[in-house]
């Protein structure tokens, strides 16, 4: 099973700052099969990025994904108050697994 | 409107089974795999398995092998997830989710979630 490790556990930033979230895999993941989700309290997850770097429909362009192999990154270029949420990466190249999540807070 | 609507909350005793339903509408049910994902309170997302509604083929996460069964009724566009031998650690919100291969296998459509509480 591919284990995904996300860091940091919690990210506390001011509005307008850049947020960089990391997702590291225990073995190589095909870039086509890495997604990022946003989850707000009491809601189902929302797809942000698929194929490591493609934005899903309706996702603001301040969200971007990058990476390959075992290291992937989600970047929020200018943090907005509505971006407060937990962010999960998921690989689906070999079965499916989620990372443990990164909580993004506003200072 | 394209959506997945799940059945309501359940309370079960340890050792019992629970069956959660997920009704699809607004699209061709047999054209997209369904995944099941659960989330314990305050915890992360945990993938449980997948089902192809067309063939009925399934694949389960190793953790749930032998305890989970995913089925469907194509005549009513509904997927089911049954979990047996429930224990307190199975208390969680259970989500069904539609896999979109046009989005390279990611999930853009989720049910609203079903809270299953296991308590004596």
Strand and helix map with partners:
The complex is a heterodimer of chains A (107) and B (120).
Chain A: E1 4-7, E2 10-13, E3 19-29, E4 34-39, E5 46-50, E6 54-55, E7 63-76, E8 85-91, E9 97-98, E10 102-106
Parallel strand pairs in A: 2-10
Antiparallel strand pairs in A: 1-3, 3-7, 4-5, 4-8, 5-6, 8-9, 8-10
Chain B: E1 3-6, E2 10-12, E3 18-25, E4 34-39, E5 46-51, E6 58-60, E7 68-73, E8 78-83, E9 92-100, E10 106-110, E11 114-118
Parallel strand pairs in B: 2-11
Antiparallel strand pairs in B: 1-3, 3-8, 4-5, 4-9, 5-6, 7-8, 9-10, 9-11
How would you describe this structure to a colleague?
The complex is a heterodimer of chains A (107) and B (120). Chain A is mainly β. Helix content of chain A is 0%, strand content 56%. Chain A has no helices and 10 strands. In chain A, the strands form 2 sheets. In chain A, strands 2, 4, 5, 6, 8, 9 and 10 form a 7-stranded mixed β-sheet that branches. Chain A has a 3-stranded antiparallel β-sheet with strand order 1-3-7, with no helix packed on it. Chain A is globular and about 35 Å long. The termini of chain A are far apart. The mean pLDDT of chain A is 95. Chain B is an all-beta fold and 120 residues long. Chain B contains no helices and 11 strands. Chain B has strands at 3-6, 10-12, 18-25, 34-39, 46-51, 58-60, 68-73, 78-83, 92-100, 106-110, 114-118. In chain B, β4 (34-39) and β5 form a beta hairpin. Chain A binds chain B through residues 1, 32-33, 35, 37, 39, 44-45, 47, 50-51, 54, 56-57, 86, 88, 90, 92, 95-101, and chain B through 35, 37, 44-47, 50, 59, 61-62, 95, 103-108, 110-113.
């Amino acid at each position: 099973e591919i284990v995904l490790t996300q860091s940091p556990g919690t990210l506390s930033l001011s509005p307008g700052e850049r947020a960089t979230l990391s997702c590291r895999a225990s073995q190589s993941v095909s870039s086509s099969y890495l997604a990022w989700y946003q989850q707000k309290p009491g809601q189902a997850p929302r797809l942000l990025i698929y194929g490591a770097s493609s934005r899903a429909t309706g996702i603001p362009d301040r969200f971007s994904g990058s990476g390959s192999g075992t290291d992937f990154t989600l970047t929020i270029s200018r943090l907005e108050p509505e971006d407060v949420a937990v962010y999960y990466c998921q690989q689906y190249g070999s079965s499916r697994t989620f990372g443990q999540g990164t909580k993004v807070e506003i200072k | 409107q394209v959506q997945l609507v799940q059945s309501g909350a359940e309370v079960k005793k340890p050792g019992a089974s629970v069956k959660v339903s997920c009704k699809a509408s607004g699209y061709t049910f047999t054209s997209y795999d369904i995944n099941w994902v659960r989330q314990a309170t305050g915890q992360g997302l945990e993938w449980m398995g997948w089902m192809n509604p067309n063939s009925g083929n399934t694949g389960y996460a190793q953790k749930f092998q032998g305890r989970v069964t995913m089925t469907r009724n194509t005549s009513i566009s509904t997927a089911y997830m049954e979990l047996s031998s429930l224990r307190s650690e199975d208390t969680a919100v259970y989500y069904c989710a539609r896999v979109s291969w046009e989005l390279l296998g990611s999930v853009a459509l989720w049910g609203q979630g079903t809270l299953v509480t296991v308590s004596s």
